[in-house]
Structure formats: structure tokens, C-alpha cells
């Protein structure tokens, strides 16, 4: 891939959309469109790690996305400067301007929307959707192509993000949010179709670990790949590309935030003590050796408030990791550009810093598998599975065969998702339901579940 061909201001749904009178760059327009979208707003009540925690102020998908966006902007600045400094001879004048002025805007916007396709209850919601179609194989498999069925049984928030951002909803303009192809390419962690998902555990390909677009968005994704210089990989049986080079930085920003901030949140809800939290974060800072250690320790001694100390350590840890991620990216840039690179930047940093694996191991044992977290994940899975069960049967029936109960069930689907036409395929009908359910917040999904199950009866005004 060529550093001069990785970006494009072309947008989904339009041929020419330069209507901003130069008041904003194209990538700031992307950022603003994401912020003002209802899909982004709903992230405020979608699970990060600690679902529906009550009065404890911890991160949800929205606050997580905002923080990832900040780290992405920093990475864009650091890496953009490094590319200009070390690859000047490879850049044309337009590209110099892009990496100097606009690259940080691309990463900031992409990081902002990287989780926008995640359903309620996070990975539990993803598993519920995928497993519903696996367990009801006889109901749906023969109604669609193998590629379409694979989309459903491997439901993936990353692929759904592309759909949420580009899908045409009833009564709205074509092209979804009409983002630039550059921003969309930058969130495609797994740029292949579902049937091309790599199942080898001994030699997995990072870009085929999962999949990145549904069959419904295949043509759109092919356009994105073409206009942003993505390199087609060597699997000719299934559509797939090597990761766009900007994806590695979006992934790094996400990895940095959730590894560090999940630890901070665990302290906030009392899962981890302050002393242990401080120890884990301080070990990373000392190990990475980016900060002025003497100044860092002197400042830490001046902070007596427990939460403030952890906040300071968190900030210094993220800063150190961002600088190391920049170094790892530039060092491996040739492999990233030719598609041979196959390891996350965060993992590369971890090879030289055992303190990162200490955080990962501790978090896995004490945070992600904490009983309270697991209980709510189980509940979320059940809620999403039962909601699917309520809608899929009725929507697959021909109109004349639907019972009164079926018709009443489908009336619950809001108008913007009502894209069913008489000639709609079963796959298209199912995606209408999946669009509705995956867009729900945790609270909305829980409330709807209670109402259709008769657990809660009454009218809200």
C-alpha cells in the first residue's frame, strides 16, 4: 500500500458533498456527524465492562469511545509527525499536508465510532445474536445463501459498525451518516466477508480473525477498499483485504484505553483495592520508561487523594503507551504497508514490558470474571436471545400467514427500521430485526423484555 493513496474524501451516498464552505475539514465533519448521531448517543447506555452499575460512575461505551478518540488524536499527531520526518521522500505535497494537518482528525473520528455497532450488553449481546441463528439453523439456513447465513451465525460488532454508519434507513438520506471512506476504512479491523473468516488457531491471520462487513454492505465496502488503497489478500475464494494501515492505530488506542481504564473502573466499584491498582499502573510507567521518572515520583508524592492518585497514574500510563505505540508503528511500517505485519501494537509493546501482561492476567481473573460482571452478562445474553425469538418468527412469515400476535409483535419495530418490501428476501427481513435489536441500549432492551414477557405491565408516557 502507498502512503499517498490511503486517504480519500469521497463519502458514502453522494458524489460531491463539499457543502461546509471550508469552515471544517472533511474529517472534522466526520467527527461532528458521529457526535450528533442517535447511534452514537445510544452508546451512553451500552455496556463497556460493568453493565448497569447503578450509582457508581464508571465507563460506558460512549465515554470509552470519547477517550479512545482522544488517544487516537494523540497517536495521529505523533505518527503523522514521524511519517513526515522519516518518509518525506515517499510523500507528495498533498500527502505531507494530510499527515501534518488531517491524519489526527481521521484517527479521532474513526476511534469515536469504532464501537458504534456493538449491541446491548457488549459481547454477551453479540453471542446471543450469533447463537440464536446457530440454534435455529433449520428455521433460516435454507432461506438464504451460505454467505448470508454465515453473517448471522458469526454476528460481529465490527461488521455491524460499517452497517450502522452506511445503511440506508427509511425516510433518511442515502449513505447513512455519509462519512468519508478514509474514516470507514480506519475502523475495519477484519476487512473480509464472513465466509473468509480464518479459523486456523495455529497460524491465525489478524485481519481474518473475525469479519468486517455483511453481504448487504459488500458493494459499499469494495468501494471503500478501492478508494483508500487497500491491498487484496491472497485468498481468492473469499473477499478479503489486508488491514488498512490506519486500523492498527485505531486498534492501539482502543487497547490502551480499555486495558488501563477497566482497571480504574474496577477500583471505582470496589473490585480492586487502591494499593493494587496503583502498583499495577506504576509498574507499567516504570517499565516503559517514557516519563521523567524523578519528576513523576515527586508529583505522585504530592497527591494524597486516593482517586486522584489513580487518575494521575492512569494518565501517565496512557501517555507512555501512546509514545511506545508510535515507535512500534513506525518500526513496523513497511510490514503494515505490504500486509505482512500480523501483531497488534499493544502486544508488541508488551514483549518488552512484562508489566502489561500483569495487568491483563489480573484483569482477566479478578475483573472480567468477577461474579457480578458474569451474572449481568448472563442476564444480558438471555434478554437479547428472547427478544430475537419474539421477532424473527413473525418477520419470516408471509404477510397472509401472520397471526394477530405476529402482527402485534412487528408493530413494535420503529418506523425507521421498517424497510420490509413485498419482495424482500428473508436475509433482508432478518437484518431489519437485527438492526433494531443491536441498536438498543441495555436499559431499553431490558425494559422491552420485561414488557413482552409480562414481567412489567403498564404504559409509559
Order of helices and strands: HHHHHHHHHHHHHHHHHHHHH
**What would the principal axes of the Cα set say about the shape?**
globular
Low-confidence stretches: none
Q: First CA to last CA: what distance?
A: 55 Å
Main sheet?
Answer: none
Percentage of residues in strands: under 5%
Number of helices: 21
Computed structural class:
mainly alpha
- The average pLDDT value, as a whole number, equals 88
Report helical residue fraction: 55-70%
What Rg do the Cα atoms give?
Answer: 23 Å
Strand elements, count: 0
Structure write-up:
With 461 residues, the protein is mostly helical. It contains 21 helices and no strands. The N and C termini lie far apart (55 Å). 43% of the residues are buried. The mean pLDDT is 88.
Layout: helices, strands, pairs:
Layout: H1 26-35, H2 38-41, H3 61-86, H4 93-112, H5 122-135, H6 137-140, H7 146-153, H8 157-166, H9 181-185, H10 218-227, H11 247-268, H12 274-288, H13 293-301, H14 306-331, H15 333-338, H16 345-351, H17 354-366, H18 371-396, H19 404-411, H20 426-438, H21 442-452
Helix pairs in contact: 1-4, 3-4, 3-11, 3-14, 4-11, 5-18, 11-14, 12-14, 12-17, 14-16, 18-19, 18-20, 18-21
Explain briefly what this protein structure is:
The chain is mostly helical and 461 residues long. It contains 21 helices and no strands.
Features:
21 helices
Amino acid at each position: 500500500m502507498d502512503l499517498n493513496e490511503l486517504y480519500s474524501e469521497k463519502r458514502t451516498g453522494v458524489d460531491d458533498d463539499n457543502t461546509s464552505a471550508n469552515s471544517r475539514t472533511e474529517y472534522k465533519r466526520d467527527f461532528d456527524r458521529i457526535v450528533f448521531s442517535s447511534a452514537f448517543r445510544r452508546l451512553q447506555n451500552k455496556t463497556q465492562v460493568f453493565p448497569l452499575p447503578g450509582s457508581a460512575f464508571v465507563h460506558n461505551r460512549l465515554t470509552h469511545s470519547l477517550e479512545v478518540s482522544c488517544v487516537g488524536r494523540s497517536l495521529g499527531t505523533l505518527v503523522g509527525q514521524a511519517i513526515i520526518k522519516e518518509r518525506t521522500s515517499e510523500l507528495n505535497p498533498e500527502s505531507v499536508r494530510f499527515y501534518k494537518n488531517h491524519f489526527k482528525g481521521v484517527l479521532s473520528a474513526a476511534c469515536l465510532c469504532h464501537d458504534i455497532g456493538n449491541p446491548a450488553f457488549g459481547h454477551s449481546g453479540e453471542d446471543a445474536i450469533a447463537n440464536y441463528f446457530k440454534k435455529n439453523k433449520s428455521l433460516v439456513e435454507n432461506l438464504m445463501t451460505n454467505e448470508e447465513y454465515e453473517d448471522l451465525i458469526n454476528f460481529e460488532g465490527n461488521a455491524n459498525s460499517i452497517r450502522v454508519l452506511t445503511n440506508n434507513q427509511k425516510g433518511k438520506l442515502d449513505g447513512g451518516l455519509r462519512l468519508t471512506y478514509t474514516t470507514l476504512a480506519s475502523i475495519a479491523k477484519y476487512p473480509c466477508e464472513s465466509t473468509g473468516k480464518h479459523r486456523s488457531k495455529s497460524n491465525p491471520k489478524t485481519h481474518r480473525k473475525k469479519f468486517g462487513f455483511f453481504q448487504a454492505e459488500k458493494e459499499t465496502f469494495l468501494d471503500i477498499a478501492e478508494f483508500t488503497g487497500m491491498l487484496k489478500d491472497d485468498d481468492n475464494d473469499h473477499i478479503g483485504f489486508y488491514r488498512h494501515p490506519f486500523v492498527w492505530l485505531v486498534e492501539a488506542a482502543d487497547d490502551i484505553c480499555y486495558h488501563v481504564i477497566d482497571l480504574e473502573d474496577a477500583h471505582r466499584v470496589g473490585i480492586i483495592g487502591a494499593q493494587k491498582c496503583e502498583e499495577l499502573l506504576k509498574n507499567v510507567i516504570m517499565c516503559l520508561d517514557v516519563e521523567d521518572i524523578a519528576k513523576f515520583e515527586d508529583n505522585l508524592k504530592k497527591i494524597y487523594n486516593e482517586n486522584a492518585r489513580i487518575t494521575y497514574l492512569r494518565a501517565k500510563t496512557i501517555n507512555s503507551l501512546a509514545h511506545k505505540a508510535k515507535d512500534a508503528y513506525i518500526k513496523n511500517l513497511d510490514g503494515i504497508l505490504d500486509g505482512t505485519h500480523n501483531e497488534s501494537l499493544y502486544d508488541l509493546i508488551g514483549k518488552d514490558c512484562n508489566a502489561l501482561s500483569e495487568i491483563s492476567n489480573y484483569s482477566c481473573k479478578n475483573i472480567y470474571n468477577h461474579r457480578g460482571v458474569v451474572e449481568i452478562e448472563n442476564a444480558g445474553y438471555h434478554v437479547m436471545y428472547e427478544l430475537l425469538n419474539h421477532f424473527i418468527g413473525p418477520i419470516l412469515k408471509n404477510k397472509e400467514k401472520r397471526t394477530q400476535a405476529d402482527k402485534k409483535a412487528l408493530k413494535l419495530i420503529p418506523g425507521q427500521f421498517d424497510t420490509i418490501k413485498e419482495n424482500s428476501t428473508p436475509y433482508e427481513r432478518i437484518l431489519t430485526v437485527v438492526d433494531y435489536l443491536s441498536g438498543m441500549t441495555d436499559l431499553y432492551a431490558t425494559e422491552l423484555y420485561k414488557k413482552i414477557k409480562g414481567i412489567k405491565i403498564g404504559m409509559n408516557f
